[in-house]
Amino acid sequence: MEQTLAGRTALITGSTSGIGHGIALLYAQAGAKVMLNGFGKPEEIAKARAEIGAAMGMAEAPYSAADLSKPDSVRQMVKDAVAALGSVDILVNNAGIQFVAPIDEFPDDKFDAIIAINFASNVHAITAALPGMKARNWGRIINIASAHGLVASPEKVAYVSAKHAVVGMTKTVALEVAKLPITCNAICPGFVRTPLAEAQVGPLAKAHNVSEQVALEDFLLEKQPSKRWIEVDEVARMALYLAGPGSGGVNGAALSIDGGWLAA
Fold first, then answer.
1. How does DSSP assign 157-204, residue by residue?
2. Taking the model in full, what pTM does it have?
3. Are residues 94 and 203 in the same domain?
């Protein structure tokens, strides 16, 4: 693979699985040095570190177990990344959690956790990483938002609110760094094929007494006109473009990758 990120360093939150892992692997293959972050079983984290490390020519990738619901932990994660990598040239805010309930039944603790991890952690990470980017006169900030950062769905008040906030914050940061060789953009995926997402298909099929294919197309992907999953690699390649050469003119964008959802 062409080494388009050779000499660059990247911190990617929520990168031990799913979208974040896909971005980390592609960045490593493109020549970047990457620090991982995320929760999971110890053996799964060890596997991710070994896989990304191998792509970088290392025994294992650096890793932070930072709790992104805590501002101090987020700031320490950035310090640890600088210590491990020498700098944070590229920051990918990807970590997120979900909970679904009507607004008048939404538990306070679930709401607060989603806002903290899906939105506030992005702000704290940018606050910690941006001074270094300014000092080096280069940086890329990529926030993984969602189609739900641009449109709403019922029973997702916390997630939709957090992702809308991410898009608004992205635009604000972009304006603040507009005269510098630093960019801040958001990627807004539709439903992406990850183990957690695929696990929803079986229960939906059972609940509606239909086949898994019907459950996928008519219920889970009902708003996605393509009626297919967005693949992790598709999102990762968009993140690679935003971090690589030729992307400097893209700033403050909320880029949809949703199978036509936002076109409807």
1. HHHHHHHHHHHHHHHHHHHHTTTTTEEEEEEEE-SB--HHHHTTHHHH
2. 0.97
3. no
Is residue 137 situated within a structural domain?
yes
Contact 118, 160 (CB under 8 A): no
Amino acid identity for residue 206 in this structure: K
3-state secondary structure of 116: helix
Element (DSSP H or E) covering residue 45:
helix 42-56
pLDDT tens-digit series, residues 224-249:
999 999 999 999 999 999 999 999 99
Verify that 48 and 171 share a domain, yes or no: yes
Q: Mean pLDDT across the stretch 24-28?
A: 98
Q: What pLDDT is attached to residue 196?
A: 80
How long a stretch of residues is the chain? 264
pLDDT number for residue 1: 81
Task: Tell me if 80 sits within 8 A of 35, measured CB to CB.
Answer: yes
Model confidence at 264, in pLDDT bands (50, 70, 90)? confident
For 145, list phi and psi in degrees, rounded to 5.
Answer: -90, -120
Question: From CA 213, how far away is CA 93, in angstroms rounded?
Answer: 32
Catalytic residues: 159
- 187 and 203 belong to one structural domain: no
Which pLDDT does position 195 carry in this prediction? Answer: 86
Judging by beta carbons within 10 Å of its beta carbon (0-12, 13-18, 19+), is residue 190 exposed, middle or buried? buried
Distance CA 35, CA 87 (A): 11
Supply the CATH number for residue 150's domain.
3.40.50.720
Its domain, for residue 174, covers 9-192+230-263
Q: Are 134 and 206 found together in one domain? A: no
